Amino acid sequence: MRTVIIGLIQQTNVESVQENMQKLRRNIENVTRQGAQLVVLQELHNSLYFCQTEDTDKFDLAEPIPGISTKFYSALAAQYNVVLVTSLFEKRAPGLYHNTAVVFDVDGSIAGKYRKMHIPDDPAYYEKFYFTPGDIGFQPIQTSIGKLGVQVCWDQWYPEGARLMALRGAEILIYPTAIGWESSDTEEEKARQLEAWIVSQRGHAVANGLPVVAVNRVGHEPDLSERTNGIQFWGNSFVAGPQGEILAQASNSAEQNLVVEVDMERSENVRRWWPFLRDRRIDEFSDLTKRYLD
């Protein structure tokens, strides 16, 4: 049986980038000591979630790739002999920035990157102010442990990206995430939002016959503009198997490291039982490239 042991790091963040990175270093060491071969970090893990406000000074957080952060995480991947999925604020050129996942292989080399394709623009999530939509498509990243279909946060609501990753041979779907509640929402509304988030990604697992890894941040982060009461990130990082079954799930309020063993051969069996790729009516799907069918 071919298995992969996956480490998920769900943590709170502070204003200091160095403190956040050193906490991540300790947590990466923790999960690799438990056998993790693949470690996934949350979205924009170096800093607070700065997109709650529109502030040009926040562009100072962005870095080139390769750069200081890639050097840091490259060294950790090599030191702990692990495939590492990171999420960075990329400065591509002056005035041109991306929300970019960078994947390191066990030797510390950059195996590949993915630039977030779907960019939200909602109260407390003003990402269109900061990020240009990705332009390198939905391409799985080949690593020493397999092909990783990495996307980022808002991408996780769209079945098309998951499908394209699967059609290009991804063996795991991975989503670094930063999502939470605004305090004015009712408890019933909070429950609906969380359940929708989990169900959507379990649906990607079922529809594509692949395991899904979602790693969210946790804890409260204030809105410095004071237009909202900030975001309570809801944690609940999880791993689902290829039939959508929950293999492990973290707390909605506490920092937590999960280490989960995933049977990579199970996808083959599930796809034999449920041959969705075989039965797709691709001859009837051309309208999916249109924004809306009036």
What does this molecule look like?
The chain has helices at 17-33, 68-80, 159-167, 187-208, 266-273, 276-279, and strands at 3-10, 38-40, 83-93, 96-104, 110-115, 121-122, 125-126, 141-143, 146-150, 172-177, 180-182, 212-216, 218-221, 231-234, 238-240, 246-249, 256-263. The strands form 4 sheets. It has a 6-stranded mixed sheet with strand order 5-4-3-2-1-17. The protein has a 6-stranded mixed sheet with strand order 8-9-10-12-15-16, covered by helices on one side. A 3-stranded antiparallel sheet has the order 11-14-13. With 294 residues, the chain is an alpha+beta fold. The chain starts with a strand and ends in a 15-residue tail after the last helix. The protein has one domain (3-280): Carbon-nitrogen hydrolase (Nitrilase/N-carbamoyl-D-aminoacid amidohydrolase, 4-Layer Sandwich).
Number of domains: 1
Are there runs of 5+ residues with pLDDT below 50, and where? none
Q: What is the mean pLDDT?
A: 97
Strand order of the largest sheet: 5-4-3-2-1-17
C-alpha end-to-end distance: 50 Å
How much helicity do the residues have?
Answer: 10-25%
Number of helices: 6
Task: Supply Rg.
Answer: 18 Å
